[in-house]
Amino acid sequence: MRKRSSRPPVVTTFSDHQVVVPENTLKVAIAIGGSTPAAAEVVARAEAALEHLSSEFPAWMEQECERLSRMRGNMRKHGTTRSARENLFRVAHDLKGQAATLGFPLAAEAADSLCRLLEHSPDASRLPLALIDQHVDAIRAIAREASSGPAETIAQALCERLRQVTDDFLIEVNKHRPDYLQGLVASSRLPETGSA
Q: Which CATH architecture has domain 56-186?
């Protein structure tokens, strides 16, 4: 086993914060482990298993879309309660993580936008149900029309517009929280807000 380096992290100090960059020990781990024929075989078997399962992906995606639709219906019925928001967020988050693997990367983008809307809205009573509906309907349409050639261009434009409307909403409802808004801007595609 290789001895761990005791090199201290690089620290850059600014007027209002510090950036700490630790030593990258991952390079050492990769160099030690390397690529072996056994590792390549494991990857090949995993890829073959995934290919074998790929015929099931559209059905799994449809099931996830049904779950999402049920959670949206639950929110419409019971309001934007904490439980309703958490349930809708959980399903959207699952879709965000699974949709690309299942062959629906644009559905993952729309699910990501829905997650942002639910997660970063400070007042649940102000959540725009129409925008939630548009996200859910977009995800379902993208999953349904994924095999259609021209649908991809439309889906891409739809995802971009959903993200833009969501970001505009989040900027508006978080303008009273400049530090939080700056975090949103830094961690996403939100436009700079100047004096936010």
A: Up-down Bundle (1.20)
Q: How far apart are CA 137 and CA 45, in angstroms?
A: 36
- pLDDT for 18-36, tens place per residue? 777 777 776 665 555 556 7
End-to-end Cα spacing for the chain? 50
Task: State pTM to two decimals.
Answer: 0.72
Domain boundaries, the chain: 10-49, 56-186
82-100 tens-digit pLDDT: 999 999 999 999 999 999 9
DSSP the chain: -PPPP-PPPEEEE-SS-EEEE----HHHHHHHH---HHHHHHHHHHHHHHHHHGGGHHHHHHHHHHHHHHHHHHHHHH-S-HHHHHHHHHHHHHHHHHTTTTT-HHHHHHHHHHHHHHHH-S-GGG--HHHHHHHHHHHHHHHHHTTSTTHHHHHHHHHHHHHHHHHHHHHHHTTT-HHHHHHHHHTSSPPP-S--
